[in-house]
Structures are given as structure tokens and as C-alpha cells.
Recover the amino acids of this structure.
């Protein structure tokens, strides 16, 4: 059973409209498993959007069975309303991980960039390129949020806190 | 079946450490049913605190079967970290109400005070006294958060949006 001890590491880039997710594992090198986005539409009721996040995240956890999940900490942008909406969504994300007994690690955007590029002020493009190289992808994920989620998963892997 | 059409109105004062709740109904006058607080301890893991809120709120909904729930909107205090923690908890509260198909009404602190006392700048003490008088209670609820939750339930009742 060569795969029985292989750890699955998830990363989540929290949001309300778009929640990026990524799954990786470690063989000799970090290996890509999957990435994508959960999406909720602005015209959908707020409570339904939060329930969509809960349900779809639960489905992903059941499908990929992560052993741990890294979640980006919120930074406080100028738009307080947006930050607060993301806070609501992030609460649902954290709760859903807890419901499914997935241990959580939290990282700031700076910690993630430093972990991926050894350079805190890297551009989004540089982070994307590093993700592509590290995970040996033919091309970077189409969506920023999915790419960010893989960066968070890699940061969790590198942190060895799993 | 005299009670079959009696609406049960819930109010929630959101928080992370203390979540106030109150249930009322309308006969000739507004009637008190129950009030209290869900509490989570600071030393408990954040994701467990959010799960306690989800579980205990679900139990209250199953017990009292509200037809609608008023939830206070967050105002943005100086402590951004506190506001964001409450935002996470409020997201779980809104999601839990949605899971249980309870329609939600949201009110600002000012709307609640104006609704209860016809005077937006009322003190906490004045609001408490109005709650006590309106619901014909022998004494005001011991906990501010429970009293505030009853004020939110009454605001929901007065708004006729149920």
C-alpha cells in the first residue's frame, strides 16, 4: 500500500464570490492533484451563498480527503464591507473544515509569498510562475484564486506543520 | 388549533464569545418565550468555537421553531481583529439560519434602538427597561446580549417583515 501514508495537503484562498482551492501531495517532490474555484453569484441571497460554500467545500473534502488545510489570513483592504463579507465567508470555511476534522494552518499573504519565492514582495505573476515550476505544470492555473490556493497548500507543505 | 398560526420570532445578537438569542411571539401583545446566550471560550480552538455556534444555534432552532430571525448588522468598532472575529461568527450564524430555512432580517443598531424606544440615542439601560415593559417581564434579562437579542426580535416584529 504505497499510498497509504501519502499526505494530501489542501490550500484555500478565502472569498465570498470566488474561493480558490488546491490539493497537492509530496512524493519526491510536491505533486499537483487538483485546483479550482468555488463560485457564488452576487445576485444569490447572502445566506444561500454561505451555504453553497459549506456544501461545495464539504464535497471537495470528501472527494480529496485532505490531511490538513492551509487558509490565508485576511488582510484588511480599504473596503470594509468587502472585508466583512469575506470574513463571513471565511468563518463558514473554517467551520466547515472543523466539521470535517481537518486541521487548519493559517498564513498571512506575506508568509505565503516569502515561502514560495523567498521574497516577500514578489508579484502575482512571479508567484504563478513559481507554482507552475514547482508543481511541474504545463501552464499556470487559469484563475488567480486557484493559483493562490496552490501557493497556500505549498506554504503548508514547506512549513512542515502537518 | 389556536396556536397553529402563531408566529415565533427569533432575534440574534451576533458575537464570537457570546451570542445573545431571544424568542417572542405575538398574541394581543408581544409575548416573551425564551432568551439566553450561546457561549464559546477564548481558549477553545477557533474552528471549534464556530462549530459550537453552529450546533447550539441549530438546537435552539429545532426547539423553538422560529418562523423568522432578526440579526443585528455589524458595526465597525476600532478593534479590527475583534470585528473580523465577530464577522466569522456572524457568517456561521447566517449560514446556520439558511441551513434551517429560516428567513433572515437584518437591522443596524440604530434601527433597533429607534424601533424599541422611538429614539435612536437611547442608552442600553433604557432599551433594557423598554424590553422589560413591552414583554411584561418581572426583571430585565441578566445578560445584555440576551436583552439585545429580544430587542432585535421585537424590531423584527414591529417591522412587519415576517
Amino acid at each position: 500500500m504505497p499510498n497509504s501514508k501519502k499526505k494530501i495537503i489542501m490550500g484555500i484562498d478565502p472569498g465570498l464570490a470566488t474561493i480558490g482551492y488546491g490539493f497537492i501531495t509530496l512524493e519526491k517532490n510536491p505533486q499537483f492533484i487538483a485546483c479550482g474555484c468555488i463560485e457564488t453569484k452576487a445576485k444569490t441571497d447572502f445566506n444561500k451563498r454561505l451555504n453553497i460554500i459549506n456544501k461545495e467545500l464539504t464535497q471537495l473534502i470528501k472527494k480529496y480527503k485532505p490531511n490538513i488545510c492551509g487558509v490565508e489570513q485576511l488582510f484588511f483592504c480599504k473596503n470594509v464591507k468587502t472585508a466583512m463579507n469575506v470574513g463571513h465567508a471565511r468563518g463558514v470555511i473554517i467551520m466547515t473544515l472543523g466539521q470535517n476534522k481537518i486541521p487548519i494552518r493559517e498564513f498571512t499573504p506575506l508568509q505565503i509569498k516569502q515561502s514560495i519565492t523567498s521574497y516577500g514582495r514578489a508579484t502575482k505573476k512571479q508567484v504563478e510562475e513559481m507554482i507552475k515550476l514547482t508543481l511541474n505544470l504545463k501552464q499556470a492555473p487559469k484563475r488567480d484564486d486557484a493559483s493562490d490556493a496552490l501557493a497556500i497548500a505549498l506554504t503548508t507543505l514547506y512549513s512542515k506543520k502537518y
